[in-house]
Design goal:
The structure is a single chain. The chain has 257 residues and is an alpha/beta fold. It contains 5 helices and 13 strands. The strands form 2 sheets. A 7-stranded mixed sheet has the order 5-4-3-2-12-1-13, with helices on one face. Strands 6-7-8-9-11-10 form a 6-stranded mixed sheet. It starts with a helix and ends with a strand. The mean pLDDT is 95.
Length: 257
């Protein structure tokens, strides 16, 4: 009997710990260097919010100018109310203009009403297309494909507007297809989410790789653990995260820190 009580208490403590970890607010800072006319900009990247309410104090604690907010997909799912989506967007818009990329769960909300809401709020949906950041010294594009689950994604269309030495920030919710991008045009940065870092890991073991910020095929590549959770509101060994990427553009070659 005592053994069963110990087991039950241990499981409850573990569940409490995983719930607590899932609700942390971690902002990771990264720096990349790219070649071009001298200027600097900062991008805020968040993915896989799902049902979670974005923490206001976390956003308000950001003490630097952000030039663009990129939502890397799964901003919502079937559980998420339009009111929650609207409130989360308004909070992100307090930082900078918002660019949205489709994930595999977003359309569960209802694609038509989600598009209408984003249009009303001035959110730019980037799907097999690219938007150029305005008032920059360099031609800088935010380019993305539609989610790979809809079989309508096109790298060629997403990159068609980008020319020559243009600087490209490329996003795919599913990072497992990013390796194709540098074979068409080489971005200065690639961003993905979707995998949640495995969400629940035991040491180095998880159903998906842990999130990372590395150089792949010569391109700085960020794969985020994401901010929210799917299925169960628990995390273990794959802390929630969002990101600020400082992009320093000068005459030097691209590097990552």
């Amino acid at each position: 009997m005592i053994f069963l009580i110990i087991i039950a208490a241990s499981l409850l403590l573990l569940m409490f710990y995983m719930y607590k970890e899932a609700n942390e607010n971690n902002v990771k800072l990264h720096t990349i260097h790219a070649k071009g006319n001298n200027e600097q900009l900062s991008i805020f990247f968040i993915s896989d919010v799902h049902l979670r309410k974005i923490n206001r104090k976390m956003v308000q604690s950001i003490d630097k100018q952000i030039h663009a907010v990129i939502i890397g997909g799964d901003f919502a799912d079937s559980r998420t109310s339009l009111e929650r989506i609207k409130n989360n967007i308004e909070l992100l818009q307090s930082l900078a203009p918002v660019y949205f990329v489709w994930g595999n769960n977003d359309r569960e909300v209802g694609e038509k009403q989600l598009r209408q809401l984003f249009e009303e709020m001035g959110v730019k949906i980037v799907e097999n297309d690219a938007f150029q950041l305005q008032q920059r010294k360099n031609p800088i594009w935010i380019s993305a494909i539609d989610d790979t689950s809809v079989q309508n994604y096109s790298f060629e269309r997403a990159l068609a507007k980008c020319e020559g030495d243009d600087l490209i920030i490329f996003i795919s919710h599913n990072p497992q297809v990013l390796q194709k991008v540098p074979t068409i045009k080489k971005p200065i940065l690639m961003l993905g989410g979707h995998l949640h870092g495995g969400q629940i890991r035991f040491g180095k073991f998880g159903i998906h790789p842990h999130g990372s910020f590395t150089v792949r095929q010569g391109v700085p590549t960020l794969i985020s653990n994401g901010y929210g959770t799917t299925l169960v509101p628990f995390r273990l060994g794959a802390k929630p995260e969002c990101h600020i990427i400082d992009i320093i553009i000068s005459g030097n070659e691209s590097t990552v820190q």
